[in-house]
Amino acid sequence: MTVLFRVFFVAVIAAFSQTALAEEPVDKISGCLGPYGHDAQSQDKRRCVGLVSDACLNAPEGETTLGMTQCIGMETKAWDAILNRDYRALMGRLDEAQQEKLKTAQRAWIALRDADCDFPSELVRGSLASVMAAECFQTHTADRVLALRRYIDFMEW
């Protein structure tokens, strides 16, 4: 990722951090995901991706490139909060050897996400790259939440 692009993307995410993410986006996505357990596996949880950002993108503030990136960043931050919560929940159910394997897997996932989301800046120049990268972070983070939840659901079964 180019240095300028990294600075821009970090600044956008930091702007949301400083405005203190309301619990509403986290609650909205969590409600869509439903509880842990085998009954929840029948739900199509991918429908929850975009639940928060789509409404923002359809509003006037989502019409600019910066607005798009901020809308997507707001949802990504909510998914990240859920990811951290679910990661801790899963870690609490594992023995020490399993915890080490999950830590290794999580580090590998972070490296994959970062490398994959760096690619738009090589493919596309200009402001579109920031939107593509933001969507990439959102999708990867949501997908990781869904993967962790599948593990938890399996353990609950």
What report would you give on this structure?
This protein has seven helices and no strands. With 157 residues, it is mostly helical. It has one domain: Substrate Binding Domain Of Dnak, Chain:A, Domain 2 (Up-down Bundle). α1 (3-18) packs across α4 (65-91) and α4 (65-91) packs parallel to α7 (128-156). The protein starts with a helix and ends with a helix.
Output the CATH class name: Mainly Alpha
Q: Number of DSSP strands?
A: 0
The major β-sheet equals: none
Class by SSE composition: mainly alpha
**Helix count, DSSP H or I runs of 4 or more residues:** 7
Structural domains: how many: 1
According to CATH, what is the topology? Answer: Substrate Binding Domain Of Dnak, Chain:A, Domain 2
The residue fraction in helices comes out at over 70%
Q: Which series of helices and strands comes N to C? A: HHHHHHH
The percentage of residues in β strands lies in under 5%
**N→C terminal distance:** 41 Å
CATH architecture: Up-down Bundle
Kindly report the average pLDDT value.
Answer: 85
Bulk shape = flat
Q: Which radius of gyration do the C-alpha atoms yield?
A: 16 Å
Short description:
The chain has 157 residues and is mainly α. Helix content is 73%, strand content 0%.
Write the topology of this structure.
Elements: H1 3-18, H2 23-33, H3 53-57, H4 65-91, H5 96-118, H6 120-123, H7 128-156
Helix pairs in contact: 1-4, 2-4, 4-7, 5-7
